[in-house]
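User: Structure tokens for both sequences below?

Assistant:
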Amino acid sequence: MPSILYLHGFHSSPMSEKAQLFSQYIKQHYPQVSVIAPQLAVTPDIAINQVEALVEQHYPELIGVVGSSLGGYLSTYLHNKYGLKAVVINPAVKPFELLSDYLGPQIHPITDQSYTLTPSHMCDLQRIYQPFLKQPEKVWCLQQEGDEVLDYRMAVEHYKESKLTLEKGGDHSFIGFSNHLPQIVEFLL
């Protein structure tokens, strides 16, 4: 069965509003397509292994990946490694810089899991940094200027050779995401 991988952001889950909207849209309009939306591990090293294993497990049928924030970063990595189409939403471009402000003890706000974010985790994220897109025509970046978490200009610069939708206003959750669902699926299909 054709499938799409959906990757949530840092301290989020497959129960996030975007993940749910995406899954429901696919179920309603494309019942022949499945959505794989895992709860990503809290530490980058395990999350990276997790998404690679999912791609390799579903690879022949996997038609693309959609990722939000840190999930967008992982999606970009998977695009370059496996040649997958990717749609990234308010993507983190250099999360190893951003998340270094969060080093230390953490409690995942949704799973309640306790863990410690360490400098070695930042190295794990930096190890998979993709300074360019191998096939920019297979990537679509949806970005809102009102993103209060990430500097939207970094994404605009990083994804300038790909399809890029830049909207005024909005926020990190990407207000109006559901308006783009038909085009996102068309792009991936």
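Moving on to the next sequence.
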Amino acid sequence: MFDLRDLELPIIAAPMAGGPSTPGLVIAAAHAGGIGFLAAGYKSPELLESEITEVGEVGIPFGVNIFTPGPPIRDRGAVQRYRDALAPVAERYGVPLPVIVDADDDHFGAKIDLVIERRVGLVSFTFGLPSVDTIQRLHDAGITVIATVASVDDADRAVAVGVDLLCVQGTEAGGHRGTLDLDAVPNDTPTVDLARDVVSRVDIPVIAAGGVGDGEAVGAVLASGAVAVQIGTALLDSDEAGTNGVHRTALRCPPSAETVVTRAFSGRPARALRNSFVDTHDALVPAEYPAVHHLTSPLRKAAVAAGERQDVNLWAGTSFASIRGGSATDIIAELWSDAHGGPESAP
């Protein structure tokens, strides 16, 4: 099984579903001495397989992140009311409101079969825990299993099912927070504190994520006892990222320096740059994932096509103001260099 402690640089390019994570980004992270993850979320098994093939041909270690399926809709009436509230947005962009999706497992079984068949080195899970049987199948294939968690209690639950590592997300993290329960309200524990608490409690390695935007943050997270840091927001404007143009522009010239945690776009809590969509819909949205995601997805795509950032999910962690463009390889190398006092100490 792959051991993250063998990396030249203990830096992981986070899986960012919806476009930002690309094979090129994963390859760039490896060239820097770290490792990257493909994001399986929202992709067909066929597309995921093509990305695995593309990265695999380079001969580098990498991981794949898979969304654990959520429950079917619990309150269809609440979802219908939210759909009705979205009608003005759909009308503004001239797109039809989609029908309500009662359940969607995001091809979970097929993706598990695929990563086993292709012997992917690391597989991480977000939005829940895989079954003990699934973990055993992955272990039998020599795959290291990682669970994404956002609290000490969630860490305990993950350890109990037999995962090999934990990815601990603090409150500063951009995009979706890895709470295991759909209805859970995320805590506001900073990444360094949460990582320290989890490290002191479990006997498996811990990755820490959230707000890691400069060398000082890298050093602080590693000092907490984490074996590696995971970065996402810091790579959103990199050359290799698949981040859309509206998102990039908003990150470069934000209307304000404020990020907020909202369920408005997907039904799950996620940190994003605040915009009018969040202000209008956050109080109305039910905790229903993936139903809400499917309702807003065509609206968000239409807003991107129109160049309108007020209706786009502008995922960003609290460190977004420090991001820069350029090669992801250079961004990662610079973070590591800054964490150790300058280029003369970089490997």
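User: Anything stand out in the second?

Assistant: The chain has a mean pLDDT of 95.
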